[in-house]
């Protein structure tokens, strides 16, 4: 063999060894082999990956995409704040209406009462307990007396 032939042979042998290494690396990658019953008798446990095999870096977003994402998040936050404020306002209005209705109901009850003024205080002393419980004090300037 001449020198150039030997060099080409060496180059060819280097290529074949690198191909063998590459193919051996490929064979080490996990192939989907059906799993049997694990020794621990816990079939729900999945096989763990080595930390070195997990891809850690993610593709970075471009500046335009970052800006668009930020704008979208800002828009979503504004909308959610708006919805929350509307709900709060509706709750306040419902509460206010409930209070006003209660006041109106109480005023109507007071207006529709039949009132009898007790002018003689000795009558109160002669009353029984049940009758005493029925007595309520009122401001007669606002109440219509019958």
Automatic annotation (TrEMBL):
Location relative to the cell: Chromosome; Nucleus, Nucleolus
Lineage, highest ranks first: Eukaryota, Metazoa, Ecdysozoa, Arthropoda, Hexapoda
GO BP terms in the entry: rRNA processing
Extent of Basic and acidic residues compositional bias: 133-146
Bias (Basic residues): 38-48
Cellular component GO terms, alphabetical: chromosome; nucleolus
Record InterPro entries: CCDC86, Cgr1-like
One Pfam short name: Cgr1
Encoding gene, per UniProt annotation: LOC4815517
Protein family according to the UniProt entry: Belongs to the CGR1 family.
Region listing for Disordered, in residue ranges: 1-51, 82-105, 124-146
Role played: Required for proper chromosome segregation during mitosis and error-free mitotic progression. Involved in nucleolar integrity and required for processing of the pre-rRNA for the 60S ribosome subunit.
Keyword Membrane: no
Keyword terms, alphabetized: Chromosome, Citrullination, Coiled coil, Nucleus, Phosphoprotein, Ribosome biogenesis, rRNA processing
Record carries keyword Phosphoprotein: yes
Species this chain originates from: Drosophila pseudoobscura pseudoobscura (Fruit fly)
Name assigned to this protein: Coiled-coil domain-containing protein 86
